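pasting for ref. prot 1 ->
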Amino acid sequence: MEQNEQPVFTIEKLYIKDLSIEVPGAPQVYLERETPSINVELSTGGNPLEEGFFEVTVTVTVTAKGAEDKTVFLVEVTQGGVFQIRNVPQETMEALLMVGCANILFPYAREAVSDAVTRAGFQPVLLAPVNFEAMYAARQQAGEGNGATAIQ
């Protein structure tokens, strides 16, 4: 009878799990005219909460470096979500969590990064879309589970 049950996938809750911003050179950094270089790192994670419920996180770290490789600002956002997933084959569960759920979470993380950078007094950082399927495939090929990936 269990094989005849339909798969269930629902978003239970979306939330910011962690948000931090550092501007170590303030207020002098606001007088600099040089455009900082931006480095973006991205990681995904997931773990079961209870039967049929999973937490998935997408962590984005943006580091801006100015003259002499000094940090202009550093933003880290961990966007989390609780998902109810039932009647899905175990062999597809990890891909669903690391690709499907990550695709749902990333726009919220992107907005939080842009908002935090703007509130810190800088031009917004607009993150490009991410191909979580390609990231997942690359990690699988490398023999890794969840992990961090640098972008740019």
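and prot 2 ->
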Amino acid sequence: MKRLLASASLSLCAALACTIDVADFTGKKCEAAWDCPGTHSCVAVRPGEGRTCEVLGLPGLSDGGEEDAGPVPTWCADIQPIMAASCVSSCHGADTRDSNQTSFRLDYYAPDAGGLPGAQAKAERIRQRASVTQDMPPSPSTVPLPTAEQRALIARWAAGGAPLCFDGGVDAGVPDGGADGGS
């Protein structure tokens, strides 16, 4: 019934040439697919937040409409080496002399023994700064800047739930909540 009402509302809205801001639904709690509008899916991609409504791309296509780039990158195999080369040496690791940023670290994945957040907790910020605004690392930089391909990997990793490592097809870092929203 909810889907029927949502569909009718969407059709009416389209007929009246109005738009719906899909961001209003992103991050809202959900239990099944029908709790989200047709533009969203009910998935578990935000660690510690249960299932939420999220905008997902079409199967086989990324959100930008180009071909699917393959499996979601992982911290262990793909992202940690980029962070080590471009972010950790003198800014976001044990040595913070070039950034004075001591509220998080990117030389590890999960919080350290003192509770300081690691890359997992900062995945969306990493995506924004490295891929969207591309202002990290700052330029000119004394460290190698990530390539366009590396920035795309970072974006796919964060958008894919920031998985730690895959071990025999099972991600050791992000609980499986399913992507179909229970439908």
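The chain is about 25% helix and 5% strand.
Residues 12-23, 58-66, 173-183 have pLDDT under 50 and may be disordered.
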